[in-house]
Specification:
- The chain has one domain: Four Helix Bundle (Hemerythrin (Met), subunit A) (Up-down Bundle).
- A two-stranded antiparallel ribbon has the order 1-2.
- The chain starts with 7 loop residues before the first strand and ends in a 9-residue tail after the last helix.
- It contains seven helices and two strands; from the N terminus they run E-E-H-H-H-H-H-H-H.
- It is mainly alpha-helical.
Length: 186
Amino acid sequence: MLTAKGLLRARQRAGTVVQPEDNWNLLDPDVLKWLLEREFSIDLLTAFTEMRMAIEPRAAGLAADGATGAQRSAIGHATDRMFSAEQGDDDPLEADIAFHRAVIEASNNRFMRQFTELSEATLRFSIRRTNEYAGVSRASATDHKRVASAIMKGDALAASALMSKLIEGALNLLLQAGKHPAKPSF
């Protein structure tokens, strides 16, 4: 299992050797979870959030263009859960993760869907940190509702731009916490 994930290499007569981190399958949710659990790294979360910037805004645009009724309902339900969490009636972390998961699933892109489990594993760590850095106990349900509304209206450009703004806010918090300069939007 560890060999398949790129962590070890077994060779006859040489034994088993731990591979450098550059050889690890960082897209494997287990590997990413282990990395995050071994020692907190703001740089690791920043790099992952930069990858989210490349995927989730596009996923939101695709969801606006082609989500099914059931997928739109899942996004709406996740948004409702975020508002319930603001009232103390739901778990804020689980509601936030459900929202991002629903949007990626609604992209109907099989490659983006592969990102769902990886995203969920990392969001469990990053959401807590970014909320802490922002001085809030949970992500803004209102900001997420804006993304959901654009998806429901079928406005792909707005959905993409609003999701980008949402993730960029988290990225900037991580960059500040890591004492890195803000990066320009692309």
